Structure formats: structure tokens, C-alpha cells
């Protein structure tokens, strides 16, 4: 007897449908799985057979063959346990095979028959909707995550008994409520820009960076507030739309970072990997690559504290995603593309001791300073739009009782600038000034005559590359938008040029 049910495999961020086919026929009793399964998937035969027996269902002493089609796609993970159990029960006569038509199942089964949560449920359910499935059956622990797809029927089961009861008589099955609906609220944070004393220039640079989605580097002595500034940047970013939240939730679902308490990502991500992190952890790694830090920071901030302390190989990994807003990883098993549209926020000291160019405090030799600064390659630095000095603060700034502008006030200005950009680029495949290409820069970065001459002089005197020049124009465009100007004036270009501090002051 034959039965089949649909499931899905995740390859990178792509969801590939998989037909789980089962055949029970006469012959020596055995359980065989074919279709390019991994070791984890092959183990499903023992988990399923034992779980069924522990729940009072004994498979007939016959030859059981399970095929996972297509056979040229490697199947990974324990999420195929539930569809394998359903297909085998259908082929054995315990269930009607027609009940499995148009259904997508996923879940891991314990030896006691409990259905355990798995990662990657949300993208699978979205794929099931695209394929026109009648319903999805998922572990009860993943039910809230799966219900984010509002126009898809989703059934959550706790154990094999509930699965059998639903498939045997769907109309009489009563879905238990999780009691968690509507709990996915925006994460609250106590951090606020009003806590930062002084550093008006760095605060201004942070606002420009968020307004135009520009990358930024904070450089200054220890204890001046570089990390404090970086950690507050998400608080001035506009709230996520539902589509952006769903996109982020898919990424975190594939990475296995969702919890029942957080089924929907509502806050923009802030990823701060340690400087000992490997290149693979930043880009995404594994035999079949999963999301790395550059992907987990999508739509948010990737913060690299003490940037020169990261390995050279790890830093150079960032060059492609900073330019393309996605990262492409090639392995023997295929090519995988992950989204990587993040703002890079980096912080560093100007030398090993941190006090250069203050020679009264700096204890480093010129060779040590040069070696430290050259840990960052010029191609990487050219992909950073703003470099902001964060100088030491004096006592009067620290002791000032009057707080600075709050994150809420700054966020209102940022949202107005974002609206200007959304309207300007409504017919373009971009959303922010930081994403402008060469041809788009010529179209949208219109300079006045005086601003054009200033930019020309800067290009020649500062020996800028074409990429650096374009970055200056993008920042100038954002500064002009913050003032509501259609054209870019000389004052906008002049301010953008001040944010090339690394090139002018330290190298």
C-alpha cells in the first residue's frame, strides 16, 4: 500500500518542497529510507517506529520503504519525523491516505511520541501557502510562529496521538489554544540618546547614518562613549513594518533563534559579535550554510567593537555584503544567497594604547600606530560612509544636568527624512540614499555650481577614489534631505567631507 505527504527542506534561505512517500509491502520486515537523507533523517526510522509502538500502534511485520523526493536534494534535520510517521501510517492502513493530500507536515518526534519544536517553520508555512496546500501540521511549540501566516490553516499537535486523531477525523478535532496570541510586543529598551553627555558631532553623525542607511565608524580614545553611541543607534531607527518583521522572523526561524515567547521579531536587530569571531560566523557557515551575523543583522545594526582586533579575513568578508546588501556563499552542495542589508557601526581606538595623536599620553611608537591603523584595509574603509571623531569629554559636559535630545525626538526627524527618500525612490529598487548606484547618483545627487566646484577640489586635493567620492555625495544627499533641500549645496558637501577623518587625520 502506498501513501505520501508533503514536507519541505531548507537550503540556505530557500525552501524546497519534499514529497515523503511510504510503501508497505510483503517481504522481510525492514524499514528502509532512501532519497539522499542525512544521518539525522535516517534516524527517523528508529524514532518513528519506537514512538508508534509506545503509543499502542504496532507496524505490521512487512517491508517499509520511505522515499524523500526529489532524490538529488540532500535532506537535513529532524523535521521529517512527523511526515514520515504520517506517510507510514497511511501506507499501513491506520489512516486514510487521501487525508494526507494537500497537507504539509513538519516536526521532530521523541521516543515517547511527543512532537518537538523544530527550526524553520515560518518559511515552510509560507511556502505551503504558495503551493496551495490545504493546511499545515506543525509542533504545538511552533504554533504561534506558524500562525503569523494569517491566510493559512495551521494545526499544532503535541504528540502522535493528536496527529492521528486529526488525520482520522479533522472535523471533530479541537485545536487547543496556546494563550500566547498577541504577545509579540515590541521589545523595550532602557537605552536613550539623552544619556550621552556632549559628543554633539558624533550624535549628529549617528543621525545622518541612520537617516540615509550609511555605514559609520567611531574613532577616539577609550572611555569617550563610542560603544554607548553605537548601542543607542537602534533606538533612533524607525519601527519595523509588518513585512520587515516577517522577513526578519523567517531569518531567525531558519537560524533556530525564535522562542515561544518571541514568535515575531518586532525590534530591529543589534548584533555585536566578539572580536574573536571567525569569518564563518560572520558570513554564515556549516556544510549547508546557515545565517551568519551579517544576515542576523539584516534591517538593523551590525556593531564591531574594537574593529582592528577582528581577524583580517573576517573583516574582508564584509566587503561584498556592504556593497551588495546580500552575501553569496558557494559550497560543493550549491550556492546560497542570504540577505545582508544592515548598517555597519564600528568603533576603534586610534592606536594600541588609545591616545594617539595626543603625544602627552600616547605611549606607542610611530611603527606601532601605523601597524594598528593598517589592520583595516583601504577597500574596507572606502565602504564606510562616515568616520566620526569621538574626543574626550570635559567635566562640564559630564556634570551637566540638562539632558540631551531623547531618542524619540531624533527618531521623528529620521522618519521624516526616510519619508522623503521613500517618495523619491518609489520607482527605484532602493529605499535609502546609502543604496544609490553610480547611475542613480548622477540622477538624484544634483549639486549647485559652488557645491560642484567644492567636490571637484576635494576629489583632487584629497586624492579620493571614485568609490570614496560617491560615498561623499550620498552623505551630502542625506544631509540635504535633513534640511529639506532639493539640491545639494556647498555646506552639505563641506559637512560630508568632515566625516573623512580617518583619511585626513590618522593615515
Automatic annotation (TrEMBL):
One Pfam match: Mg_chelatase_C
Q: Which UniProt keywords apply?
A: ATP-binding, Nucleotide-binding
Superkingdom per UniProt: Bacteria
List each copy of the AAA+ ATPase domain by range: 212-396
Family annotation (NCBIfam families): YifB family Mg chelatase-like AAA ATPase (TIGR00368)
Name this protein carries in UniProt:
YifB family Mg chelatase-like AAA ATPase
Any one Gene Ontology MF annotation carried by this entry is:
DNA binding
Taxonomic lineage: Bacteria, Bacillati, Bacillota, Clostridia, Lachnospirales
Task: Tell me its family.
Answer: Belongs to the Mg-chelatase subunits D/I family. ComM subfamily.
Presence of keyword Signal? no
